[in-house]
Amino acid sequence: MAFPCPLCGASSRARTSRMLSATTKETYYNCTNDDCCHQYKTLEGDPRTLAKPVSPAEVIPANQVRRIALQEKPTTTAITQLPGGVRHHIR
Question: Tens-of-pLDDT digits for all 91 residues of the chain?
Fold first, then answer.
């Protein structure tokens, strides 16, 4: 993610980031201007809802989202007709 350098206005690159809390992220940046080379950090937080869901869904903890998505992956069965029999493949 690019962020403008507060000193020279050039584009900066995010070097690293870390979560300080569930809603606050600290990001460290390096300015890409060779004459500036400013290093700084920003805080991103205080998320605000812009539009609520039409029907509120069950709240799923962030650490379980990927696990639930993998469990819901549908399985498909393929049948292959071969001489001498039928083979079933479950994917």
Answer: 678 999 999 999 999 999 998 889 999 999 999 999 999 999 999 888 888 776 666 666 666 666 655 555 555 555 555 566 655 555 4
Task: Please state the domain extents for the chain.
Answer: 2-46+60-90
Q: How far apart are CA 28 and CA 22, in angstroms?
A: 18
Tokens 């990001």, residue? 27
**Beta-bridge mates of residue 44:** 25
Residues in a beta bridge with 18: 26
82 Cα distance to chain centroid: 44
